[in-house]
Amino acid sequence: MSRLVKKSPSVCTDLPLSSSDVCNKLHLMKEFLRSSYGPTARLKQVHNNIGGSVVTSSTSSVLLQAIASSQPIISLIRSSILNHVSRFSDCGLFAAVFCLCLLEQAGQCGLRKNVMIKVNKHLLALCTGYLQQEDCGCKVKLDFCSSQSLITLARSVISSKPTCVLTEPESDHISRLAVQAFLLTVPCNIPDTVRLGRTVTITIEGHSVLKSAVFPGLLLSMPESLCFDSLCSPLHVVLFSISLAGDLSEIGDGRIEMHQGVDVDSQILDQLLELGKQVLKDGVKLFLCQKVIHPVLQHYLRCNGVIVIERLGVSLMEPLIQLTGAQPVATLHATIPSTVYGKVHNVCIRQFGCKTLLHLHPAGESAICSMILCHRNETMLNELKLVCQTTEHVLGLTLREPFALLGGGCTETHLAAYVRHKSKNEVSESTSVLGCSQTEYLLAADAFCRSLELVATSLEHDGGTSLIDLTHAHHWTLPSDVTEEHLEGVMAPCGCGVVESCQNKTRSYLDTKYAGFSPAPLLTASPLQATVLDSFTAKVNALGVAVETANLVLDVRYVIQDVN
Amino acid sequence: SVWVMLESVIINSRQHVGLQKVSALAGRFRSSIGPIKNYKFIQDEVSRESVLVCSCFRIIENLEPTCAVGQLVYETVQAHHKGYRSGSGCLLFLAGAWSRTALDCLQRGIAVTHIIKAMSEGIDICLDVCKKSSVLFKDIAVMHKRTATPRDLGLQLSEEAITDASQEAANVHDKCLNMSGQRRVKLSRHFYEAKSEMLSSALLPDLLELPDVAVLADSLSHGCEDAMKLAVEAVQMLSKMNQQDISDPSFDISKVQTCVLPGLPEDCACVVEGCVFLLSDEQARVAHRIKQQPLKVALVTGDLSQTYRHLGFKSLSGVGVCEHLDLSASSKEDEWLEKVVNRLLNLKVNLILTAGLASQKVIQHCCRHHILVVEKVNSSVLRIIASSTGAVPVSYATQLAEPCVGNGINVEIWRDLSSYERESSTAVNISNGRNGGLVTAVITSCIHGKLQALEDQFWACAYRLHHALKDRALLPGAGGTEVLCVHQLQKQAEYHRVEDSKTGSAANLYRGLVLQLMADGLIDYISAVMVSTGRFSAAEARTIVSKQLQDFHKDEIIAGRFLESRREDAVFSAGKPDEALTVKIYDNLSVKQEAWRKALDLVFLVLQTDAEIITGTGQRAEENLMRL
User: Fold this and answer.
1) CB distance B628–A256 less than 8 Å?
2) What is the Cα–Cα distance from B391 to B386, expressed in whole angstroms?
3) What's the pLDDT at B327?
C-alpha cells in the first residue's frame, strides 16, 4: 500500500534583500571572501568534519566551490562568479567582493532599486569605456620584446596566494618558469588561427620549490622502473582512447546472449593480441592507452621491445595528440590504418624524487611543455598548482589584449576617483538620460565608488589603513604599527609600485570624503615600471560580471522555493 | 549545506584558536620526545580496545584527531614519517612551541605578515647554523680515531699495533698528499683492517674520510641500541651481497624488509639474507622437500584463482547463455587448476610467489606436486626478486612461459615455530644470495603488543643510517645543534635591537622579539628532552641550558662535547653511563632540517587561517558557527 505524503506548498519570499536573514548571509559571505583577498589574505580550511582531507586555500574557485548554500541569492552570486572564474581563472575574489560591496552599499544608501540598477549600468559603461581608452591612467601596455612585464604579471598572480608560502627568490623562480612555459606554448609558425599549446603540470611533494622546472615536450608518469634499449628516432606512437582491459565495458549496458562454451574473455584477448601483432608489424615503439591495458597484451608488447604506458587519463589525451600527431584509436575490431600513428623524436627517462617520468621529445615543432612543480608539503603544492594554472591562463589572455592593469588596489582607487570626477562634472547630462534626480544620481555614484574603494581596502588584513593620493589617485597602505610622524620615512611606494613615496603628495584616508579631482596620468619618459600588475582581460570582465550580478540581485522581487 | 566557522572575531581579541589547538595537541607529546621513551596505553572509550604505543607518530596515529587543525597536524607528521621514520616528536614539539611564539607575537600586536617574515628569517638562521655546524664524515673519522680505544673499536689490537698502523697510515697519506695536493690528515679505522693493502692508492684519499657504519650507528642509536645493531647488520649484509664500492657507501632502504614473529624472545631478532615467510604445516612439508637446492621461481602479481581479473577489468553483468548446459563453476575451476599445475610442472617451477591471495585448494593442489605457493608477498619484494633472478612477474598464472621463469633461488627452513603453537608453524627463508638481493630483519618479541614499537625502532634506526650515508654529514646531537641555533638567534635578536635603538625606527621593533621568542621555543625543546629522561626537573634543565648558553663554546659543541660536565648523568643517552662517556651523540642533518621546516610551515598555515568551511550535513552545536 502506498502512502501519500502531502506536498508542502512552495515558499514565496517578497523582496528578499530586505530580509535580515538574507542580508546577514550576504554580509557573512562578503566578510568571508574579503578576508581571503590578496597576498596577505587569511586562509580558509575546507573540510567535511568526518575525517576527510583538509584543504587550506584562499583561491576563489576552491572557496566558492565549497560554500554551497540553500539561499538562492547566495547561489546566484556564487554560480555567476564561478562562471567567470571558469572562463578567465583570475579576479574571482575581486568580482565577488565588488559585487557584495555594491549590494551592501545599495542597501545602505536607501535609493530605489531601479535607480541603483540604472546608475550602476551607466557607471560600468563609463569605467569600461575609460579602461579601453588609449590614455587610460591605470593601464600598462605590455611589451613583448622583453619578458620583464610578463614576469611581473605572473609574479603578481603567483604571490597573491599566501597558502603557497613562497619566499621572494621562490616566487621569482616560479614566475620565470610560468613565463617560460607560456612562451613554449606559443606556436612558432603561425597558421591562420593561433592556437596555444598546453602546459602539463606534474607535482612532486617534499622537494624545494627551487627544484621546479619546465621542459619542452611531455613527461609521463611511469608505473614501474623500466629499461629500454636505445631506440632509433623517430619513434612511432599509437594512442588508444578505449579500454584495452579485455572486457566488454565499452559496449554499454544491455543483455548479451551467447552460446554455451564460448569463452568471451579469451576471445577478446585473442583480438587484443592480434592488435598487438599488427602494431608490432607496423614498427610501433610506444604504445599508449588512456585506460587499462590487459596485462597479457602489455607483457607481449614489452617482450617485443615496445614501451607500454596505460591509464594516462583523459586530461593527457589532448596534449598527446598535439605532441605526437597521433589520432586516438577507439576500436579494436578493425585493422589500424597507418595514418593514425603519430611519432616522437625520442624518449628518455627522468627521475624526480620518487617519481620516474618518461620524457617524450616532439618530432617537429610543438607547443606542448611540461612543468614540474615541487613544494615542501601537499597543501602548499596544491595551491601552487592552482595558481600556476591561473598564471598560464592570464598570460595566454595577454595575446588577445596586450595590456595589464596596475595592481595593488591602484586601479580601483584610480577608477573610483575618475568616476567621482566624471559623474560630478556630467551630472546634468547623465540625469536627463537616466531619468533620476541629481541627488539620487550622486548618491548612487558615491555607492559605486565606495564599493570600488572597499575592494582596494580589502587588500589589507593587518589593521593597516588605506590612503589615496590626490594627484594620481593611487592606493597606499599605512601599516598599523607605523606612527604618523614616521610616515614619510618608512612609507613604501604605492600598491602597484609606480608612484614613489618621496614625491610630495597630499594623501587622504580612503574612508573619508575627499574633494573630487581628475586623476593625473603619470608623465614619465620610460614606460611605467609597476611591481604589481593585474590581468586586463580578466579584470575588465570581472568588473562587468560584478556589476551585472549585483544588478540582477537588486532586481529580484520574489524568491519562490520548492521546499519538498 | 555549509557551515562557515568564523574565527575572525576571536582573532581580534588576539586569541588565535587554531594556534592554541596546535599548541595543545603538541603538549600531549611533551613526555614522549627524546631518546628515553615510555610505553603508553591508548584505550578506545567505546570498544575498550587498547594499543601499546611508544613513538610520537604512533600516538598521534591512534589519537585520530578530527578537527581540521588536528588533521592538518596529523597529515604533516604522516608525510614526515613516510620519508624519515624519526623526528616526528621534534616536529610536533616545535610546531607547538612555535605556535606559542606566534600567539605571543599576536598578543603583542605584531601583524601576521611581520610574524611570518621574522620567523622565516629565524628558520633561515637555524638552517644556516645546521649547515655550518654539520660535521662531515671525514671529521667524524678523525675524531673517532683520536678518541678511539681498542675496546670500543671492537678490535683485538694492542695499543702498539694501533700506533703502528696509524704511523703506516700517515705514511701512506703523505704519499697521497702530493697527488691530491691538499693537506688533509684524516684517518680512518679502515686502515687497520687487513683489506687495506688490497686497495689501490688512488682510492685512499676518499676512503680515509669515511667513518665506519658501526661508528655512525653508535652515535645515532639514540637509545635504541638493539634496533641499531640490527640496522647495522642489514647495512653490512647488503653491502657484502651487492659488493658495494666501499668508497661510496649507501644504504638502499628499499632492499630491506621486516618480518615480525611474535612468540620468540627478543634476543632472537636478527637479519637474514632474502626474505622470511611463515608457512603452514602442509607448505612446510613441501619446503622440506625442496630445500637447499637451486629452484625455478614464478612470480604472479594477481591472485592465484580462476576468477581473478586484473584491476580495471569490468565483468559483464548482463550476460546470458543460450543453452543452459553450462559447465558448473567448480569444474571450470578444476579445469583452470589442472592447466596451471601442468604449466608449472612443464616449466619445472617449484616455487611460486604471489602478491595476491591463493585459495586453499590451489595451495593444496600445488603441494601435492611439490610446488610451494607463498601468498601475500609484498610487491616490492616481487620486483627485487624479479630483477635478481631474471623472472618476469605476470598477472595471471596462465600467462607463465619459459622466459618468465627465474632461476637459482633457495628455500631454507629458518626456524620451526611449532612449539609456540602457531597456525603457520614454520618460518622459511627464501633467498638467492646473489647480487641485487634483499635482506630481512626478523623482529621478535614474546609480548605481542611490543612488536609494532620494535619494528618502528628498527626502521627509525635504518632510516637514520640511510640518511646519514646520503647526507655524508651529521649534526652535533644531544641538544648541541639546538644550543647553537639558540645562540645564533639570540645574537641576531640582539643585533636587531641595537639597530633599532640606533636608527630609532619602529619598523624593525618586532624582529628581535620574534627571533628571541623562537629561540625560547628551542630552549623549551632542549629542556623538555632533558626532563623526559627523568633525571632532571624542569627548573634544573633550564638552569643547565642557560648556563651552557652563558659559557658558550661553539667548537666544543661541534666536537660533540656539549653538556660534557653532565655526561655522568648521561643526559641524552639511554645507554649505560660508562658508554655515554665515550660515545658521541649525533643527529641526522636532513631529518632535523626537514622536521623544523615542516613544523614552521604548519605554524604558518595555521597562523594565516581565520575560518573553517565545514561542508556536508550534520547538525553541530558549536559557538562561532554561522550558516550560509
Assistant:
1) no
2) 5
3) 55
